[in-house]
Amino acid sequence: MSRTRHANSSRPFRRLRLASLTAGLGAALIAALAVTGCVRLSTFDANGLWKVVGDQCVPNARDKGQPGPCTTVDFQKRYAVLKDISGRAQYLLIPTDRVSGIESPDILYAGSPEYWAGAWSAGRYVDDKLKMTLAPTQLGLEINSSQQRSQNQLHIHVDCMRNDIADALAPYRHDAPGSWRWATLDGKRYRVTRVTSLTDRSNPFRVVERGLDPQQAMATQTILVTGAGPDTARDGWLVVNSAQDMEGGTGTAEGLLDHSCALAKAQ
């Protein structure tokens, strides 16, 4: 009987401790969501990235001088950079204007923001996260077709290249700019060209659009950009392109990136 009474008498104490613990965990969860919830929203909401950038990063940078939850907001160049929730060191470049994606005519007109050049510059955040400096051939930028994306706001992935893909692209590093050659990468059909700039006529959006057949559309395209050699000022960049409606092609080149950045672990 005494044991029973002792056990019963301890229940209110255990309930009190449990309630206290639950309240503590709830407070911690609320605090965590206050920091990360806005970014996690993009996982479930097709307009999530725009809500993060347009509703939080831009006003925070404008009114408070702090771009959080973004890493940076560049009002002059009209883009923000945000750490993606997936990937060891993956970042996203996102316009501060409402731009749907690769199919948008707003990325092609003369004087439109040079998002690719901005994305390449954002590679320094990947370096910072990895605590090392990637070679240009180890850094990749990628955008998905309209059918292969989860977000209705243009975003360029900035991350590590897969080692095997970087090796497979080596034969194209000295190609004459403006010529396309075909390649099979990760079992899919791509075409590859070299550019000496990421702006103006060499902007990868414009390079790909100029090379499309009349029946092809930008909406079905995927583009990957990586360094053509160890010095982009001398070697330039490779533009790698495929399409959802191309025989043997694909609407996403994201699989050519390595979100685990294995190349950094090996060094």
From TrEMBL:
InterPro entries: CDP-diacylglyc_Pase (IPR003763), HIT-like_sf (IPR036265)
A GO cellular component annotation in the UniProt record: plasma membrane
Pathway the protein contributes to: Phospholipid metabolism; CDP-diacylglycerol degradation; phosphatidate from CDP-diacylglycerol: step 1/1; Lipid metabolism
Reactions catalysed according to its record: a CDP-1,2-diacyl-sn-glycerol + H2O = a 1,2-diacyl-sn-glycero-3-phosphate + CMP + 2 H(+)
Compartment(s): Cell membrane
Enzyme class: hydrolase
Record flagged with keyword Lipid biosynthesis: yes
GO biological process, one term: phospholipid biosynthetic process
GO molecular function, one term: CDP-diacylglycerol diphosphatase activity
Protein name: CDP-diacylglycerol pyrophosphatase
Species of the source: Paraburkholderia eburnea
